[in-house]
Automatic annotation (TrEMBL):
<protein>
    <recommendedName>
        <fullName>Outer membrane protein beta-barrel domain-containing protein</fullName>
    </recommendedName>
</protein>
<feature type="signal peptide">
    <location>
        <begin position="1"/>
        <end position="20"/>
    </location>
</feature>
<keyword id="KW-0732">Signal</keyword>
Amino acid sequence: MKKQILAAAVLAVASFGAYAAEGTTTDSIAPSYTYVDARIARNAIEVDPNMSDVNFDGYNINGSFEFAEQFHVFGGYESTNNDEFGVDIDLTQTQVGIGWHPSVADNADFLLEASWINRKAEVSAFGVSADEDEDAYRVSAGFRGAFNKYVVGSIKANYTDGKNSDGEFSPTAGLEVRFNDMWSLIGEAEFAESEQHYTVGVRASF
């Protein structure tokens, strides 16, 4: 299953790069790698194949800064919660990384990123709480490009490996709709084997 997901992600990355190269216009604006954004977030986690996914809702804050033309550093923090079963469960995630984004066509870049991720789960019930956290590492590769001056798309294939979990491949797709040079609406979805992650929010680029 993981090999099929990886193969699909690689094919999608190749198709996206070709489309971005052909679909740009002379008035396109290149993607920005210096920004901050705030989003609402949902983690849909499969606990049992015979049960509905358990949804964790919350917020997500991200930032990125470009340096040396083709490089950027980025980071993010997310907090989501579920208390529908009478047990309060909080999930938090912190991510810090560095990326390389060389141009492959007008307004289209190749992406290669490496990051450290800390995940924490805290469970509270009847006045008693317990928590557990895990450090993980992620490598991502893909494309980001402007279809025109209003729409920017991205697609990546990720490999994430944690201390207490097996390595896993997952594809991520993102879409940015720009209102002007600074403000845009941003959305992203990631599909892992037993978890889907969705975010929608507002971005300010500089």
